[in-house]
Amino acid sequence: MAQKLAELAAAHRLRRLEPARGIDFSSNDYLQMAAHPRLRETLAHALLDGLPVGAGAARLLRGNHDIISECEKRMADWLGAPACLLTSSGYLANYLLLSTLPQRGDIILYDANVHASMRDGIRASSTQAYKFAHNNLEDLARLISEHNRKQIFIVTESLFSMDGDFADISALYDLAVTHGTMLIVDDAHATGIYGANGKGCTEGFSHDHLITVHTGGKALGAAGGIIAARQDIMDLLINTARPFIFATAPMPVLALALMTATETLDSESWRREQLLALCTYAENKISGAQKRAASPIFPIILGTDSAALAAAKSLQSAGFDVRAIRPPTVPDGTARLRLSLNIAQTHKQIDACLNVMKQFIAA
Asked: What is the pLDDT at residue 288?
C-alpha cells in the first residue's frame, strides 16, 4: 500500500479529500437546487411527521415504501417514460443496468468517453463490448454493420461530463430504430436543464428503442438515480439485477426530495433559462464567439497532471473553487481544469475567474 501511494504521489495523482471553499466553479449544482428552501422545508416537515429516514430493507423485502413507488410513477410521468426505477445513486443506476440487461451473446457498442459507471457496468456484464470514437457516427455505423446479426446495445452520454459536448441523440436514436438496436443514454448532466421542458436531451423520444438514466444529484439538487424504460425491461431488472435485489432500498426521504425538486423546477423554469444564458456568455468569453452548443461544463485541457494541479492551486488562491481533473478520470495527456457554471455566479465572477485562467490557457 505504501508503495502504491508513493507511486501515485510521484505521478501527481494522489488525491485528498478537500472541503468546499471559495466561489463554486466545481460542483454540478447547476440550478442551485441543493439548498432550495422548498426542498429543505418539505423534507424537514415530512421527517417530523413520521417519514422514516431509512428504508429498512431491500425493495423485494420490506423496503418497498409507498413513497418510493409513488416517486417512480411521478418520475415516469415527468420524463414521459413507461416506467422508472429509483436507485440510491446515478452510478448504481448505470452499473445495475449495464451489468444486467445485456445477455451473453449480445454486443455493447459504447462511446469512448462514457462515464466510469457505464464502463464498470459493461466490464461486469457477460457480453462483448467495443468502443467507438467519441461522437463518431460513422465509426458506430461500421461497428453496427459488423455485428448486425446480434442484439446490440448502443451506450452513450447525452452531455459528456468531462468534455461539455453533446451526443447527437436524434441521429443515434434513428440508428437504433433502423437497425433494431437498443440505445442507452446517460442523461445525468442534462436532466433538469435541456429539452423543451427541462426533462433532458432525450425528452420527447419514445422508449421503444431507448433506455435513459437520470440523476437527482446534479441539477435536481438531491441524490439518487432513475432508470426510465419499458415495463418489461423494468421487470427484468427487478428480478435479475443483483445490485437491486441485494441492496437496501433508497431512503424514503430521497424519493420525496426528487418529487419536490421536479415540481419546483417545473414552476421555476427561469432557473434553466438563466443557466443557459450564462453558458452562452462564458462560451463567448472563452472562445471569442459561440462555437458549440451552450453547456455549463468547460474543460480547459492543460495536458500534464502537474500543470493542471498548478492552475487549480492558483485559482483556489484567488478564491475560485476549481479542481484539477487527472487520469484515470480523463485519458492520459489530457489533464484539465473543469469549469462548471451555476446560476449563483455573476458575469463579474465569471470574468474574474477567466482572467486568472488566461495565463494557463495561453501557456
From this structure: 64
Mean pLDDT of 77-90: 98
Looking at the structure of the chain, the number of domains it has is: 2
Question: Looking at 239, 267, 295, which one is the last position of a domain?
Answer: 267
Residue 358's pLDDT band (boundaries 50, 70, 90)? confident
Amino acid (one-letter) located at 178: T
DSSP result, 81-120:
-SEEEEES-HHHHHHHHHHHSSPTT-EEEEETT--HHHHH
Q: What residues act catalytically?
A: 28, 115, 157, 161, 186, 189, 218
What's the CATH code of the domain at 322? 3.90.1150.10
Tell whether the torsion through CA atoms of 124, 126, 127 and 128 is positive or negative.
Answer: positive
| Tally: H helices and E strands in the chain | 13, 12
DSSP assignment letter at 224? -
Torsion over CA: 289, 293, 297, 300 (sign): negative
Q: Which of 238, 267, 296 is the last residue of a domain?
A: 267
